Amino acid sequence: MTVFIPTPLRSYTGQKGQVDAPGATLGEVLSALDRRYPGLRFRIITEQDTIREHIRIFVNEEQAWDLSVALRPDDQIHIICALSGG
Amino acid sequence: MATRKAAISLQPVSGSVVLLIGTRKGAFFLRGDRARRTWKLSHPLFLGQIVHHLVLDPRDRRTMLMAARTGHLGPTVFRSTDLGKTWNEAKTPPAFPKAPEGQKGLVVDHVFWLTPGHASEPNAWYAGASPQGLFRSDDGGVTWEPLSGLNDDPQYRAWMGSEQDGTPDGPKLHSIIVDPRDPAHLYLAMSGGGVHESVDGGKTWTTLVQGMEVVDGFDPANVAVHDPHCVRLCPSNPDRLYQQNHCGIYRLDRPSNQWVRIGKSMPKRIGDIGFPMVLHPRDPDTAWVFPMDGTGVWPRVSPGGKPAVYKTRNAGKTWARLNKDFPKSQAWWTVKRQAMTADAHEPVGLYFGTTSGEVWASRTGGASWTRLASHLPEIYSVEAAELSS
User: Fold this and answer.
1) pLDDT < 70 stretches in chain B
2) Which of A46, A55, A67 best tests the B interface by mutation, with the highest count of B CBs <10 A?
3) Which CATH class is domain B17-95+106-386?
4) Do B73 and A39 touch (CB under 8 A)?
5) Of B44, B16, B13, which is closest to residue B29 (Cα–Cα)?
């Protein structure tokens, strides 16, 4: 799975804008990312496992609304900082 | 509450002071020399992060914790164990427990307040959050746990209110105070939700709002409508607390539970509304406030655009206006609750950061002032860190 990382999160990924992570669901992919880049998940996912208010996650070009979204190995995930107030 | 014997003797320090400045767009250090005459501003740390509080651990004088988030990214705590040279993120930042399936759980929006624990608990820290919650770390800020005795108490949650029942960017738990004589004796304040005390390390809490006034038309017996802005405990007399409240300035002398509104002796044209409350490190009768305009729609600026500090030397019986060197007109800034502090030198140094990004200092207890920095982002917090005694 390819995950595109926005600039505000690249301090976690060693400035990489694109990383790979395994998982059958969006939640699994983000947990895998967090094991590799500790702390990244909590900046975008709340303690209630919801996507933070000003974060958007797209699977291919479709917005994901929760972590249960099923994924295929060739899916692309884009994490976006929402255009919310400049 | 039984009175604990006040046996605190604090000597003036003479080492250099570093101001730890949290702003809406990152953190800064302002390093002073031993004479506190020359100051050097650092480059920004964590530029772009919203830093509500940056605190040096007075127990080791090396560890710093920073409460941060960005406009998009969630809240966290960064920590340094080398005086801010390098930083790591908390492995488990303050967070509420996951709610059972089908129930709505709380989400920390930002960590607002950090307090080092008691000297006998070298790795203990407390954090206050918005929405209101109290958290504790026992490993120097690496991992944090919610304190259920407060956070999950139905009565306290009702007093804390909803996300709309606080300041415009959310209700805040702040002014977490550890009695220097007893690690289990804690105070905290909630905006809104009153002042509270624990004598068992935060397991249970009792309310301390007697004597505190509330906005016209509300019942002071309703704890939810009390809005303490900043509570401080006298370092030299831990049985005395001062409070800057939404509705006045107060003093409390334990074991009494009755706050006394000492702000009534402030000039009527200034009033006794404000955010910060600063206490003298050795004289329990001396304190400073920074009044703001709390009339009408609450402009939250200096009254009349004329900033001034007010000082009492007699525990609030009288107040003196201190505004030498400040702009005499058209200065529409104010000072937030964590953004004014004192050092432990003799004479005491006072420091504050403004909503317009200026840092001011006084080496004379407020008699004269110098602007140390300008053009910073909006300042949320200023702490004076003593690097040595």
Assistant:
1) 1-9, 389
2) A46
3) mainly beta
4) no
5) B44
- The DSSP call for residue A39 is T
Measured CA to CA, the distance from residue B311 to residue B54 in angstroms comes to: 26
Give me the pLDDT at residue B161, please: 87
Q: Measure B96 CA to nearest chain A CA, in Å.
A: 7
Block residue for tokens 């570093």: B18
pTM: 0.96
Q: Which domains does chain A have, with CATH numbers?
A: 2-81 (3.10.20.30)
pLDDT of residue B4: 57
Whether omega for the bond prior to residue B102 falls within 30 degrees of 0, making it cis, is: no
**Domain ranges within chain B, ordered by starting residue:** 17-95+106-386
The three state secondary structure string of chain B is CCCCCCCCCCCCCCCCEEEEEEECCEEEEEEECCCCCCEEECCCECCCCEEEEEEECCCCCCCEEEEEECCCCCCEEEEECCCCCCCEECCECCCCCCCCCCCCCCCCCEEEEEEECCCCCCCCEEEEEECCEEEEECCCCCECEECHHHHCCHHHHHHHCCCCCCECCECEEEEEEECCCCCCCEEEEEECCEEEEECCCCCCCEECCCCCCCCCCCCCCCHHHCCEEEEEEECCEEEEEEEEECCEEEEEECCCCCCEEHHHHCCCCCCCCEEEEEECCCCCCCEEEEECCCCCCCCCCCHHHCCCEEEECCCCCCCEEECCCCCCCCCCCCCCCECEEECCCCCCCEEEECCCCCEEEECCCCCCCEEEECCCCCEEEEEEEECCC
Q: From B358, B267, B369, select the one nearest B312 (Cα to Cα).
A: B267
Identity of the amino acid at B27: A
For the stretch B144-159, pLDDT in tens is: 999 999 999 999 999 9
Calculate what percentage of chain A has a pLDDT beyond 70: 97
pLDDT in tens, B305-336: 999 999 999 999 999 999 999 999 999 999 99
pLDDT of B9: 60
The whole-number average pLDDT for the span A28-45 is: 98
Backbone angles phi, psi at B150, to 5 degrees: -100, -50
CB contact under 8 A, B71 and A85: yes
Query: Which of B73, B89, B108 is the best substitution to test chain A (most A C-beta atoms within 10 A)?
Result: B73
What is residue A83's predicted lDDT score, i.e. its pLDDT? 75
With CB atoms and an 8 Å threshold, state whether A8 touches B96: no
Q: Judge whether B352 and B359 are in contact, CB under 8 Å.
A: yes
